[in-house]
Protein: Methyl-accepting chemotaxis protein
Organism: Mobiluncus mulieris
Amino acid sequence: MALSTADDIIVSRKKKRNISIKTRLILMAAIALALMLIINLVSFNGLRTIQEDQITSGHYTKVYEKLTDVIEYVALLEGYQETAARYSLLRDNAKTPEEAAAIQKKSDDDDDAWKELVAKTQETIDSISSMVQTPSGKKAVQKIIAAWTEYKPTHELLLDLSHDPAPAATARMNELLGKGVWDKYQATRTVLDEFNTFEEKTLAELRNKSVSLSTTVMVITWLAFLAAVVVLSLVAVFSIKHIQKSITLIMKGVGALRDGDLSQRLQPLSTDELGKTAVALNEANETLHSMILSTVSSSEQINASTEALNKAGEQAAAGAEEVDSASTTVAAAAEEVATSVQTVAAGAEEMGASIREISSNANEAAKVAQDASKLAEQTSTTIAKLGNSSKEIGEVIKTITSIAEQTNLLALNATIEAARAGDAGKGFAVVAGEVKDLASDTGNATSEIGDKITQIQADIEEAVTAIGEITNIISSINDYQTTIAAAVEEQTATTNEMSRSVSEAADGMSQISGSIASLAQTAKDSRTAVDGMNEQFVQLRAASGSLKKQAEAFKL
């Protein structure tokens, strides 16, 4: 049966569902997210509106509380007015001045509380005016401010009249309380009650709006949730039904493949992942069909090839045996050569050490000869200086001899002059005689020293000549030592090169010996591998026969 590809299926079955599983899942997630977004938006807007209403309600509540305080303050002020009028009446009807003073004191004690209450009323009204923002609220507050502005001066007037003890002041207070003040109080209380009613109505409307909005948000949220559940359920049921049918079809093909039936081909229900899986399963059946046919053919070829390989393996085993024997003989000979080369290398190393020692001694001798030559030159220089010094001493001795001769002549003249002097010159004659003798001794001594100096100069000249000859001999020795050191250095280089060459030869023989040993081991391993390969050939023939039987068991 011919195999259908995925492109053929798409062309021939255009009515199939082309929505992939991935797209279905993304669609379900998108629907869920969209519905959740709608629910969240509705809830958010509703909650935000409720929150704004609650803030507005809180604002109105604060205004309402302050308005309640103003109403209470105005009622208290009305009470203070009546109390002040009653105190004034009692004071006027008092029987004694003391009683009148006591009543006046009670009235004065209420003045501070009265003034403070007026200030608190004004402060609270100003606060309400700054808090109210709506046009209707501002209009109502303006009415309250106007009524309070007209009502407030009456308190100041009544407060002043309450301190006046004259009966006329009491009459004036009663007149004001009976007419103008009460009317102003009623007007103020009326606008306060109207604004209070407006605030209560506004708060009630805000509460009703919040309750209604909360109910609406809850209903919309539940409806959106139910819609999401219904839509997602429909999409899920549709997708699961489609996937179940496709999986059942694929399981049918897999079951046929499990039973060895390769003749079955599936008809995909769609072009999604499951449809492509069915097409891939068809292609796998076709490929497996071709592979089994090829396996049967290959197993027959393997049987023929293993026979030929088995024979070749036996020949390779025989060759490996011969290589093993020959490599063993060559390895023994190479080992002997390596031993001889190592002996020569050791001798060359010893000779090199001896030559290095000779070179060191020759260098030391050359250094000693150089030092001796320098010392001889220094000695010759010193002796030459000594000859010059002896010549200078001879000149000095000649001078001393000349001085002694002159001294002797002077002593002789002194003796003659002393003799002429007679007795007066006897002492001088004695001294002159002593000087003459001393001059004579000095002349004799200097003559002897001059002879010694002359002998020393002759000896110095001989020493200088001998040292010059010694210097020449040492220089010749130094030249010979230098020549010997150079020759020994060349011999050392030659010996080192010979030692290196012999060492390399020894290393090379060791490597050759190791390579031959490796070759022998490789030959043994090859023989073992060939034997194992022959056994595997036998097993391969058996496995090939078994594979052929199993392949023939499939239904093609």
Notes: The chain is about 90% helix and 0% strand.
